[in-house]
Amino acid sequence: MKRKLQAVERDITEAEVARNGWEEKSWDVDTTIGHKFEELEALSIECNQALRRLKLGNGLQYVLNANGSSLAKVLGIDYK
């Protein structure tokens, strides 16, 4: 009985260590995604300013969509 209890405790400890590892990885990924999204926002602002200077479109403007599931949806074009 004591061995089984020790085995269960060891399994619990290993599971907690694994969970903590995955949690740290998810924080790293979340931080990386946040930085990349900020970079995309800055690039879209630059693109919009260049479009206005070149007068290429009638109200053509890039707008980021944080809820997009694909690159085309994230970097959508909004006609204003």
UniProtKB/TrEMBL annotation:
InterPro entries: NDC80_plants
Name of the molecule in the record: Uncharacterized protein
Native species: Vitis vinifera
